[in-house]
Design a protein that fits this description.
Blueprint lengths: L1 E6 L3 E8 L2 E9 L6 H14 L9 E6 L2 H15 L4 E2 L9 E2 L9 H13 L4 E6 L2 E7 L4 E9 L1 H11 L19 H28 L4 E5 L3 H4 L8 E2 L3 H13 L1
Parallel strand pairs: 1-4, 4-5, 6-9, 7-10, 10-11
Antiparallel strand pairs: 1-2, 2-3, 7-8, 8-9
């Protein structure tokens, strides 16, 4: 069994995995001010809450896109488990054929998602990861990772609107009954949900046109399951994609 961490700008996904079984998965707020000891207490409490036998944990792995707290988290994991976690990066053994201009710029989270996707699905693939940013990764039929599109995440965009437009309120992101909003909240919800769903459909169309073939489309991230039902394309939602990818990378690099 391993302890796996997927560290994003907004949330840290923590889970324990053994073979194909995920014993638990939970999200913590990414807090750059917490100390190693504070994170260690959180990890130990989670392991206890989910009744995981510490003696069965035999390793750890971390993927982080927040460099200022990566070492803090690695040290916290070591304190709790006694194992120094493997850190995901583009130079580790991952099995991907990366065909971008500068592979060193590729986010660790994109590597994890691509590895998980290729383990289960045959390319060509489009992978939406919907977090602080929405990333759209493309893998062609030759198993080559071609590149990525990046745009503000749904909540990031809505928070920017709230912060910069004095008459617009903070809203709960959910689908209104109609695309055509009739009050401020419904208007903003329509843009957030239907607008982003239309973006996903439009990007799929454009990417498939460039590739010259149909793709299998996957989505992960906290908001994916709320947007997919409003898309015209078939999109497969896998909320555990990142933990699955981390487990595969651990096995390749332990």
């Amino acid at each position: 069994m391993i302890l796996a961490l997927d560290v994003g700008n907004t949330n840290i996904v923590v889970g324990c995995i053994e073979k194909e079984a995920i014993f638990f998965e939970c999200r913590l707020s990414t807090d750059r001010n917490k100390t190693e000891a504070e994170y260690a207490v959180i990890f130990k409490n989670l392991i206890d809450i989910y009744d995981v036998d510490m003696n069965k944990i035999s390793g750890a792995i971390i993927s982080s896109v927040v460099p200022p707290i990566t070492n803090v988290l690695k040290n916290a994991v070591f304190t709790v488990t006694g194992y120094e976690p493997i850190e995901v990066d583009v130079h580790m053994e991952h099995g991907l054929k990366i065909n971008t201009k500068n592979p060193d710029e590729l986010g660790n989270d994109l590597i994890v998602a691509a590895v998980a996707a290729l383990d289960k699905y045959k390319p060509p693939l489009i992978i939406f990861d919907m977090g602080t940013a929405t990333t759209i990764s493309v893998i062609d039929k030759n198993y080559e990772f071609l590149g990525v599109s990046i745009l503000p995440g749904v909540k990031t965009a809505m928070n920017a609107l709230f912060d910069n437009a004095s008459q617009l309120p903070a809203i709960k992101i959910e689908a209104p009954k109609s695309v055509i909003g009739t009050n401020t909240i419904e208007c903003m919800q329509s843009g957030a949900v239907y607008g982003n769903a239309a973006m996903m459909d439009g990007m799929i169309d454009r990417i498939e046109k460039e590739l010259g073939e149909k793709t299998t489309v996957l989505a992960t991230g906290g908001l994916a399951k709320f947007l997919i039902p409003h898309c015209n394309h078939e999109i497969l939602c896998d909320e555990n994609m990142m933990l699955k990818g981390l487990k595969i990378l651990y096995e390749k690099n332990r």
